[in-house]
Amino acid sequence: MQFPYQCLASREATETGEGGWTLFGACGSTLVAQSSSGGTSTWTKPDEPVAEPQPKDADAEGPPEKKVKLSEPPKQKKANFTNLIVTSDGRHIVAVTGEDKCIRVFDTNFENQLRQLSERPMSRRPCSITLTSDDSTILCADKFGDVYSLPLIPRPDYVIPEAPAEPVQEEEWIPSATVLTVHSGRNRKTLEDQLKQKKKGPAPPKDEMKFEHQLLLGHVSMLTDIVNAEVDARHYIITADRDEHIRVSRGIPQAHIIEGFCFGHEAFISKLCLSNSGRLVSGGGDPNLFVWDWPNHKLLKKLPLLDAVAEHLKSRPELGVGEVSKVAVSGIWSVPNSDEVLVACEGVPALFSFKIDATTNKSTHTTEYSGAMALKGNALDVTFLPTSPSSSSAVVSIDHVHKPGSTKEVREEKDIHRLQCFSSKENGIWHEDSHTAEMLKSFHDQVFDVEAGASRGDGSATGDGKAGLGSADDKALRDMLYSVENLRKRPGAEE
């Protein structure tokens, strides 16, 4: 069974002539690269050594222990890729593997051979990464709410600073109030929260990061996305979190200074995108996309995303999807050489095109939504190949394991292509690009085991091609592909 590509990235490759490109994809814990000339290469994370159980000393006192028969050896720890970006010069790839919280940097040569330069485990799991405009620094936002900066290439002469002295252990805190002395409902709730926190004990310490890094800024909520921006030679860091906040901070070295906030979302924010005109487009759990004049912290327009999704699904009754009441934005991509964005929603087999330049002219609001690109599976990621100087081809990674329109049901059809390619003509309408799809046939034919990261050439991931589907392994795959809706706060849940 072939597994989907959960991440895609691309670069221009002029070594092979005008219109040359290289496509990178992450399938589980494996990276795949293919150039426009047809050459492919892969990189797979080496397996971690598994410690063998130590035999018990024969001279040890006491009765012999009962032997426990192991049905199978312990599994290797997974390290699936969650983020993938390419530097502007195309020489380096920056990636994140989620399970081990590592930021990995690769370089790629003329033959697109992938070589890992560094791996740096963060203290908290990264949720989004980006690069500064000069490609020298990685900006990493984590699920704890912090943003760190790391040099793209670690300095060999960097010296790890000495660890601070161990803090003196404080005496155990005991609240002075009791349920007998507290009478109001609010105070009783506060006391219950204090007792509950005391029972949990102190928060676990962060893992020590033994490499060069700097804490830039922090939110009080889980971060979901980060964007680096530049206006009039001034740099800014834009961050979004689960609590509906978009924060605009100054760039390095003044990232601690807050320029302002973009308020307006009523649900979580999952994705940020800067259009070619410099507008900020944000989306998440709200029924609309938001378009911002972010330097002035002003909302320009709301684009009706939920209506577009409902209209498209209604036009495809074969999907069997009922009424749609909510959406969760899983991706927003700016189209090169155009003031247009493509939007994907979790569990929806389509991409939605919006013209951002029309948002400042109320008389042309009917042209803001351009239409939908029907897909054969749920959209996972999008990248653009520079096939010609004036146009680009969009390569879409689709989920060919689950049924279109569902994040749980496994589809019965086989031999579904994991990629779909589209090109935009002069009229701005997207059409399927069969020529590019044929060029990526070898990219599609790569088969990997998502859990172990091993390449197989027999067309199966676990031997019979069915193991894992509908089982715990299938749940692990589903959790890896679909996590945006989990950001939505449940009614009555503690915040």
TrEMBL record:
Superkingdom of this protein's organism: Eukaryota
Biased composition range(s): Polar residues: 35-44
Pathway noted in the entry: tRNA modification; N(7)-methylguanine-tRNA biosynthesis
Biased composition, class Basic and acidic residues, residue ranges: 54-74
SMART domains hit by this protein: WD40 (SM00320)
Biological process terms in GO annotation: tRNA (guanine-N7)-methylation
Any one annotated GO CC term: tRNA methyltransferase complex
Keywords in alphabetical order: Nucleus, Repeat, tRNA processing, WD repeat
SUPFAM superfamilies: WD40 repeat-like
Function: Required for the formation of N(7)-methylguanine at position 46 (m7G46) in tRNA. In the complex, it is required to stabilize and induce conformational changes of the catalytic subunit.
HAMAP family on file: TRM82
Name listed for the protein in its UniProt record: Uncharacterized protein
Organism expressing this protein natively: Epicoccum nigrum (Soil fungus)
